[in-house]
Amino acid sequence: MNTRYKITRLDEQGNPTLSLEECQSFFSTKSDFEYNDSFGASQDGVHMKIKGHFFMWQLENVKIPFRFFEGEIYVAVSHPVVLEKTMEIAHLLEANYIEG
Fold first, then answer.
1. What is residue 22's predicted lDDT score, i.e. its pLDDT?
2. 2 near 75, Cβ under 8 Å?
3. What is the edge-to-edge ordering of all strands in the sheet holding 62-69?
4. Is 45 buried (19+), middle (13-18) or exposed (0-12) by CB count in 10 A?
5. 53 near 38, Cβ under 8 Å?
6. Which residues pair with 94 in a beta bridge?
7. pTM assigned to the model
8. Beta-strand pair 62-69/72-77
9. Mean pLDDT per 10-residue interval, the chain, length 100 residues
10. Torsion angle, CA of 7/27/55/10, rounded to 10 degrees?
C-alpha cells in the first residue's frame, strides 16, 4: 500500500501558501517533470480520468503524479526513491513534507 505525503508551506495562520503559478514555474525548470491538466488510470478494464493540476515525474517507464490541490502538493509514495524526490522538492520549495 502507498503512503500519501503532502508538500506544504504554511503562513503564520496555518494556511497553505504554495500557488499554482509558483509550482508551474518551479516544475518547468525540471526536465524530468511535465505538467498535465488531468490524470488517467486503468485497471480491470475500467478507466478513470481526474481533472486537476498534475506534475508528472518520469521515473524509468513509470510516471508518478505530484498533484497540486488547494495550495499543497500530494504524492503517493510507493518506493523509497519517490520519497527521496518528495523530500528534495520540499527542500527546494522551502516547504515541509508531511505524511497524510
1. 97
2. no
3. 33-43, 46-59, 62-69, 72-77, 3-8, 96-99
4. exposed
5. no
6. none
7. 0.91
8. antiparallel
9. 92 95 97 95 90 95 95 94 96 95
10. 20
